[in-house]
């Protein structure tokens, strides 16, 4: 996918702060630190348009990025981060759910899962919730650069068994090596019928 422009638009917490519903949107969900902000940088061919961090809990608002004046990539806070209060966790959950459920221009959700580890119960709950709510979901198994080819295949099998999806469903990805970037774009085009 050729990127002609990529631009940070704004950060929002409440629906009245979202940008106008002008473009098709895709949102990125997953555990804190899984690489949601990183995949947005990779897709947009930018080093740090979305802020990343080695410490979980970096993204705390809903951040909108416009690509090629035609599509919005939406970065969300992560789940499963132990070091925030119960109250803050509940606030993030509400913020994420109301965005996902209310945004009429949202065409699909990319769920990222760390391929190094078996999907957590929160990964499983999120995937089930997305399916229940009839979202088109793209599963991306990320940080594949940290594994050998054998481990990739072994962990992919476990991921698919745990979530009950076919073996060719998740896209193997790495923000470091950019493996899977074109495949993710192709699938996004499918979701968006672009
Ligand atoms: P929160 O905003 O805290 O929810 O995290 P996030 O999901 O946005 O993760 P982020 O993109 O900030 O990445 C977290 C850390 O993982 C950073 O140190 C990234 O450099 C690293 N990272 C992300 N993707 C990959 C990957 O594919 N391979 C490797 N090796 N590191 C990655
Ligand atoms: Mg982030």
TrEMBL record:
GO molecular function: GTP binding; metal ion binding
InterPro entries, per the entry: G_ENGB_dom, GTP-bd, GTP-bd_ribosome_bio_YsxC, P-loop_NTPase, Small_GTP-bd
Keyword Cell cycle: yes
All copies of domain EngB-type G, residue ranges: 22-194
Any one GO cellular component localisation term in the record: cytosol
Family statement: Belongs to the TRAFAC class TrmE-Era-EngA-EngB-Septin-like GTPase superfamily. EngB GTPase family.
Function (record text): Necessary for normal cell division and for the maintenance of normal septation.
NCBIfam families, alphabetized: GTPase_YsxC, small_GTP
Protein name: Probable GTP-binding protein EngB
Organism encoding this protein: Proteinivorax hydrogeniformans
